[in-house]
Design brief:
alpha+beta, 3 domains, 13 strands, 27% strand, 37% helix, single chain
């Protein structure tokens, strides 16, 4: 059996184990800020302040989160054949990690593979709580397939400890759910979707703008983008619900051209999970 720690660490692309410390603050006039009011998380190798927090905040280091995910994978026993990647944002204030399992795949259609993966997040600036989630990754375009079925989440504030056993159990549940999805994907492939149906779905879900009136509005720029993705996906996958699903997930996971790619990715993932739980999706 492979050494999981070696397998995991040899693929990392960023130095996520930098030192941090929690320090007291002073005003610009030299007055000490009471620690129960606010303290700072400092990256001590660069002396950059990564976040300001109240007294209840306890920093979960990126190092401890990576090790916790590794331990959970080991305890879950699902596989030790995986590739991993850790990304840092905002000088290390935010971290996103991905573990993809090469031997946990399903093939809804010939040549169209989906791979099981675990994503995890952490931050020092308070924008992201520690989170671990199990999901599917479509291999055709490395398109993360995020939805209410394959995502099994753990979310913990920085005032609580990480429960390795619970996370391991959720990874196991995620694998079980993942392999049960093949039949549903096949149903989607056999469900016809016209251009008009796709456009109406986008307008009433991912593009809808909330208003305080009865007037219905939608984001026209986003609609144009999503319809372009729909036309691309249907050429490869056919005019069906599977193509519509992949148009949505492609949009949610391809955020590198946005101002804050990591933040936008999380925002879109959350919107997509909500969208796939809505009756509008089931009625397509």
């Amino acid at each position: 059996m492979n050494d999981l720690s070696l397998t995991f660490n040899k693929n990392l692309v960023n130095d996520w184990a930098f030192p941090v410390d929690t320090v007291n603050l002073k005003t610009d006039t030299g007055i000490d800020v009471p620690w129960e009011k606010a303290r700072a998380i400092v990256r001590t190798d660069t002396n950059d302040i990564l976040g300001i927090h109240g007294k209840k905040y306890k920093a979960k280091t990126h190092d401890s989160v990576v090790n916790a995910v590794l331990d959970a994978i080991r305890k879950s026993g699902v596989s030790n054949d995986f590739n991993s990647k850790v990304e840092l944002f905002d000088n290390g204030a935010k971290m996103r990690g991905t573990v993809s399992f090469d031997d946990l795949t399903i093939e809804p259609a010939v040549g169209d593979f989906i791979k099981f993966q675990v994503l995890f997040y952490n931050s020092y600036d308070g924008s992201w709580a520690y989170q671990q989630q199990a999901m599917g990754l479509r291999l055709w375009c490395l398109n993360g397939c995020t939805d209410r079925h394959t995502v099994v989440r753990t979310v913990a504030k920085h005032t609580t400890n990480i429960n390795i056993e619970a996370d391991a159990s959720k990874i196991q549940q995620g694998v079980d759910t993942f392999f049960r999805r093949k039949e549903e994907y096949i149903v989607w492939m056999n469900t016809h979707v016209s251009d008009e149906m796709a456009e109406m779905f986008f307008k009433y879900s991912l593009c809808r703008i909330k208003t305080n009136t009865s007037e219905f509005k939608w984001n026209k720029v986003r609609l144009e983008t999503l319809m372009g993705l729909w036309h691309t996906e249907k050429q490869h996958l056919g005019r069906n619900k599977w193509a519509l699903y992949n148009a949505c997930t492609y949009w949610a996971t391809h955020t590198n051209s946005t101002k804050s790619p990591a933040v936008e990715r999380r925002t879109r993932d959350a919107l997509l999970a909500k969208t796939f739980s809505n009756p509008n999706w089931h009625n397509v």
